[in-house]
Amino acid sequence: MAQALLGCIADDFTGATDLANMLVRGGMRTVQTIGVPDRSAKIEADALVVALKSRTVPAKQAVRQSLNALEWLRAHGCRQFFFKYCSTFDSTPRGNIGPVADALLDALKDDFTIACPAFPENGRTVFRGNLFVGDVLLNESGMESHPLTPMSDANLVRVLQRQTKSKVGLIRYDAISAGVEEIRACIDELKQDGVRLAIADALTDRDLYMLGKACRDLALVTGGSGMALGLPQNFHSADLLVYSGQAADLQQIDGRSVVLAGSASRATNAQVAEWRAGKPSFRIDPMALSRGEPVVDNAIQFARAHDETVLIYATSSPDEVKIVQRELGIEKAGHIVEEALASIACKLRDAGVRKFVVAGGETSGAVVQALGVRSLRIGPQIDPGVPATQSVPTNGEAPLALALKSGNFGATDFFAKALKAL
Q1: Do 82 and 10 form a contact (C-beta atoms < 8 A)?
Q2: Helix 295-304 and helix 330-350: axis angle, to 10°?
Q3: CATH match of 6-237 with 3.40.50.10840
Q4: Is the pLDDT of residue 287 over 60?
Q5: Which of 130, 253, 277, 385 could form a disulfide with 18 if both were Cys (CB 3.0 to 4.6 A apart)?
Q6: What is the pLDDT of residue 109?
């Protein structure tokens, strides 16, 4: 069996599919696993993406999970490794980006890596170390109100330095725009100055391709999915990878479908509002769940009563989320919603649903785990950062079609587009 070339560790499930989408576009046959597979699992692919649910867990737990994933990927022969996090650098002063990057560097016995969350296709750019979402700084984009990882500082050098004892530097746009050799010269200077982690500016896809080439010899690269744009070409250039025009091919899956939304992001709020304007929807009320009301059963009855696809959502405005969090606590508020949507997904699957569109990273993680999905084949892109995927059956069960969307991603009509793609 051919060994994989690129081994990837993603800190959430939708981020993993986002990354895998980029690699498929680069001609790499890509399989995404849900968590770290059993040691005996053998998977044929050019790129392997291990999807963790480690973004908001305690830093020590995130490090442990990431190191376990690294060990499995190394056993599959991967030549380079990629640590993927959100294009809005979702984290806190305690981590988890810095601690995980440090631990992976230590395990690989290397002394330098870059950090670049830029994703220009989705409006995420980095200039002079500051992260922009569209035309506004990160801390003015709505991310300052994120319920779990509020981002109040757009300067990623400062953000990352708070999370690590390693020295953090910056690869300025001057070097990026000058090309590969200038980037490598900048990296050498930073290493001589004791820098171990460097934020990299990027404004366009061209910048990401240049960075990818410049990082050819690094054992570890970190960033958002955009940073993976230039990595497949390194393997092509080294004659290790033959471009596969069928890398995104998936089989046809028949059956009913459902849309599940748990994210409170602006993008998902707009998508929910678009759907509700003319299609059936059922709202999950966290307070009703906490009182023990039969919300899950009511949602199932609602779905069964309609011949068309329904939306079942817990999406709320930031102010509404804060009210629930004050009543229930941040952790419980999120957990009961994820648990409810995961339970609904399982009951609907048992009733014949085979196609799932899921909005929100935490929600997607809860749903795929509850459905028992262990790995996904990655198909064509639906919207930037969101591909169609298919579960890989392990015990003869029927495969499922899934679109797992980060809360911040997708056009306003994403749900309809995803259902058409599946």
Answers
A1: no
A2: 40
A3: yes
A4: yes
A5: 385
A6: 97
